[in-house]
Amino acid sequence: MTALTSFVRRLCLAFVLCGTLQAQAPAGEWPHYGRDAGGTRHSPLTQITRQNVARLEVAWTYHTGELGLQPRRGAPPSLEVTPLVVDGTMYISTPLGRVIALDPTTGRERWRFDPAVNPQGGYGDFTSRGVSTWLDVRAAPGAPCRRRIYIGAIDARLIALDAATGTRCIGFGDSGTVNLRTGLRVPPSEFPALQVTSPPAIVRDLVITGSSIADNSGIAPASGEVRAFDARTGALRWRWDPIPQSPNDPAYATWRDSSAARTGAANVWSVIVADSARDLVFVPTSSPAPDYYGGRRLGANRYANSVVALRASSGAVVWHFQTVHHDLWDYDNASPPALVTIVRNGVSVPAVLQATKTGQLFILHRETGNPIFPVAERPVPRSTVPNEEAFATQPFTTVTPPLSPHRLEDAWGPTDADRAACRAMIAGLRNEGIFTPPSLEGTLVVPSNIGGAHWGGVAADENRAIAVVPVNRVASMVQLIPAQGFDRAAAQRESDRAGAGYQYTFMGGTPYVMRRRILIGPSGLPCSPPPFGSLVAINLRTGQRLWDVPLGAPPAREGAPAPPAAWGSPNLGGPIVTASGLVFVAATLDRAIHAHDIDSGKELWRAPLPASGKATPMTYEAAGRQFIVIAAGGGGVFGEGDAIVAFALPRN
């Protein structure tokens, strides 16, 4: 770094004028998972408008060829990729870690890379949500690997590819690959315990990645370090453990009885976003292991369940804000943060938006982590489980209202029989609202473990000062069962016979087995009242809700009438926004993609998909046309699919 460059960088940091010194993506490209490195998912394109969006039609469809894969164990594959478009090429990834380059105008394949992932690995979340790209400005134009594509494959390999040809960049790591299973404080306890499902963040010449760790399997299935690698060589530059290991760290004391040393997870499985100008990366951490019993890790467990700002160049903690203390509900921060600038009292304020499974949107100062809109610590219910101590208070936003309900007063159902069945399900469960701890008799959990807000995350329009968040409004139950003498196979058989659909998990190193399920009535609809899924807009000037509309519709059961659209749909997947005032989102069970008016929430268009689009769409411009693209890959109840579908206005 020259003296002049160093001076300019320091000046930039001091006066927060850095954005003008960073390369800005051409308007027609989508070069990051969230389009910009800060994850706003906002596109400046305006060809598709509120007036013509209803004329969108399918422009092309590409099939990955992974349809029909049925693993012997673990989750089925789910195509959840958000494509990138950069330098005139689209890049996608598949659950099997294949990276494919497409012509963005026609969808024709240009090249394909196959890392030979074992499809029978027993992965807990069998997906890849995308790739990342980096330009080596030291390399000559046209040189191999000048533009690189990075993928974190499901089997925990970080791979670098030449963007032009799809061949490995052999100077990166070991012939193009870094093994992410090595070098951890707690090595993975078994092969699928550590996975990668989200694309890494790129900050200057660093590739920064987290990991996905198997839930509920034990106290330390693996440790959840965030690691930064040299983008050229793959050499490790720094690592940060979200469970503090040094007694000198102020957060260490919040892990009582030296539990930090024996606890795993708290990993970052969601998307990491960056403010390169401020030398910051923002990591949303998850719950420490295991999710539902914390008797072996008493205390607030700081850095877990938090938004943490790290110094991008070193990995040092700059600030942190904990969204859940001592998590007992699987309320990990699944949603990527989004970096925006908001105006408060006439002053522009750099902010971080973090939507959470608790159905809250925290709006924090990007440089300090302090709440821009107030947050209060409120008392919550105590635990009745022996040797467990639920944290006495939890953080609640006081200006921004909950995005989804925090209490279920009574069971719902479309018929008397449904209501009776749902009431029987919740009878006897502890039901004291959000943060009621898991219990031996069973606890009603609202929001459920899938959220509230979920991994779909936030889209933000700074000019309109609006953030849009998809949310679920379904309830679940969780119960802790003494492990001694428990016959899991017999319990599962009984659950299957009764149609109860319980999930059982032995939490190794604890006295309990976890049992949980989403509360669904005989008609196949949730026991919580509709809408079951919504799209919510928050005014970033006031923090208040701007609108709240049902998102999608639950699918009709065979032989039954279609449910009302006002009931909405459970959803998993994110939104994007455009400068023309549109919100695009799929995510729902109704196998459709939707467009909403960002000012009113009104649905303006929907189009059928071959499977549910359990992904975040993207938009770009090629050959003079604006395209909207969604991965229709479903997975599980979302259906089976392997399609990348592009929509555009008719050529005439």
Describe this structure in words.
This protein is 5% helix and 31% strand. It contains three helices and 40 strands. Strands 1-34-35-36-37 form a five-stranded mixed sheet, with no helix packed on it. Strands 2-40-39-38 form a four-stranded antiparallel sheet, with no helix packed on it. Strand 39 and strand 40 form a beta hairpin. It is globular. It starts with a helix and ends with a strand. The N terminus is likely disordered.
Largest sheet: 5 strands, mixed
DSSP strand tally: 40
Low-confidence stretches: 1-22
DSSP helical segment count = 3
Q: Tell me what portion of residues adopts beta-strand conformation.
A: 25-35%
Helix content: under 10%
